[in-house]
Amino acid sequence: MLLDAAAFVPTSRLDLTAVQPDFVTLSFYKMFGHPTGVGALLIRRSALANLKRPWFAGGTVNFASVRDKRTCCHNEAAFEDGTLNYLSIPAVEIGLLHLQSIGIDTIAERVRCLTGWLLEELLALRHGNDRAMVRIYGPATTQARGGT
Question: What's the mean per-residue pLDDT of the chain?
Fold first, then answer.
């Protein structure tokens, strides 16, 4: 099972004991706006053995044999193409420390408040004939509604 948590984790706690996916994707850009192109793929160790890749790129191979038509790749590196954006990797630690200093609960509350304000303001918009300018699909409050 794959869980795309890229849009969820910037404002919410992800409990991987409640949901136990084989793969989880994260985007650091969506979490703190920088760096672009750097994310994470969390892989359950038992699921990693099931992944097979029909090609390889530089720096990911222990050996390759034309005669036997097989390769031996490094574990997780076998799934990377090209050079990592290594100059941006220090920004990940800085961003995570910043989010930790604010607190995910504070961030979630701020997003909830902004979402509530946005919904109220949109629903207050009226045409000259007093008809609503905006139609909200889904809840018109922050109850049972995700981040906007």
Answer: 83
Q: Say if CB 37 and CB 28 are below 8 A apart.
A: no
70 backbone dihedrals φ, ψ, rounded to 5°: -145, 160
For 95, how many CA atoms within 13 A lie in the half-sphere containing its CB? 18
Q: What b/e sequence results for 78-110 when a residue is b if at least 16 CB atoms lie within 10 Å of its CB, and e otherwise? A: bbeeeeeeeeeeebbeebeeebeeeeeeebeee
Task: Give bridge partners of residue 71 from the DSSP assignment.
Answer: 64
- Go through the chain and tell me how many residues it has: 148
Q: Which amino acid is at 143?
A: Q
Amino acid at 27: S
Whether the full predicted model's pTM is greater than 0.90, yes or no, is no
